Amino acid sequence: MNHVSNVPNLLHGATIPFLIFFLYQLMFIVITVPLMTGAFAGRLNLKGYVLLLIFWNLLIYFPVCHWIWGGGFLAQLGFRDFAGGAVIHTTAGFGSLACILTLGQRKIPSSERNGHSSLMAAAIGTGLLWFGWFGFNSGGALRADYQAVNAFGSTFIALAFAMITWLLVAKVKGNGFDFVDVLTGSVAGLATITPCAGYIHPKSAMVIGIIAGIVCQYAVAFRKQKNWDDALDVWGVHGMGGFTGTILIGIFATNAHLMSNSQSWFLLGVQVVGVCLVALYAYAVTAGILKVIMHMTTITTTKEEQEEGLDFTFFGK
């Protein structure tokens, strides 16, 4: 907590108290591992979750955050990530993929699970995400100016076009759609616009939203085809959304919004190499963490615990 005060830091928001920047970054780290929970829902016990939380942040989030936002080697190459497409969504998404493949499926088939879902609760939760995401993305400007407003508008446009595209693709594929598709499509747009929200013109957000609706829906379909147990489609929506959006910076970002004279093709190359490195690193280290912990202690749940429900098993209610 040294130097965390109301005095601005010239490197991290010269016009805001450093304490605000600290709390903004704290919000990011608090949400990143919980994003992954859908990938191991019902499979990790409480001890396993806490151990993963600690080591994942230490070995994945902190290094990647430093590479990109802390002046690390990717930042020095010119890699851009406005509000966490690589730092948060790509790391969480590909870390989730490692959890899915390392832990395997739940021990009871989906038809026999006792869990209940509520469309109303899902809608309320997604609405809260929408509202919070405006601050999430606009805050990437680290000041109240045109770039922050630009990020706000781009975020709203992208989520709308992603949601519409998701529904249209589902209709064309002949699968039909339901209200969950509305919610999932909007979140896909939010995840994809996150890395580029402040670097693009709002009209580009329409195209990015369309791309998000297509890419993320096919990623989710691929996950279903492979029968991966990802209850919240963390990899398909957050992982592939953040991954795709990070690459699209190299296509749609303008020098005026970047506040630099980056060469477009060079930037595109840096974005592709950088986000691939982040994805591979997050996947490999997450798998390594799980395998080491599983070798040392029991962190997975039994079939009986899954049938009873983990809330009751660990908390008695």
Describe the protein's architecture and organization.
GO terms for molecular function: ammonium channel activity. Pfam families: Ammonium_transp. This protein has 317 residues and is an all-alpha fold. It has one domain (18-315): Orthogonal Bundle (Ammonium transporter fold), CATH 1.10.3430. The protein has helices spanning 18-35, 46-69, 73-77, 85-103, 119-138, 146-172, 179-193, 202-226, 234-252, 255-258, 264-296, 303-308, 310-315. 42% of the residues are buried.
| Sequence of secondary-structure elements | HHHHHHHHHHHHH
Q: What is the share of helical residues?
A: 55-70%
Low-confidence stretches: none
Total DSSP E strands: 0
CATH architecture classification name: Orthogonal Bundle
Instruction: Note the quaternary state here.
Output: single chain
What is the CATH topology descriptor? Ammonium transporter fold
- Helical segment tally? 13
Name of the CATH class:
Mainly Alpha
The N- and C-terminal alpha carbons lie at a distance of 37 Å
Proportion in β-strands:
under 5%
The name of the CATH superfamily reads Ammonium transporter AmtB like domains
The chain-level structural class is: mainly alpha
Mean pLDDT: 90
Shape: globular
User: How many separate structural domains?
Assistant: 1
Largest sheet: none
Radius of gyration: 20 Å
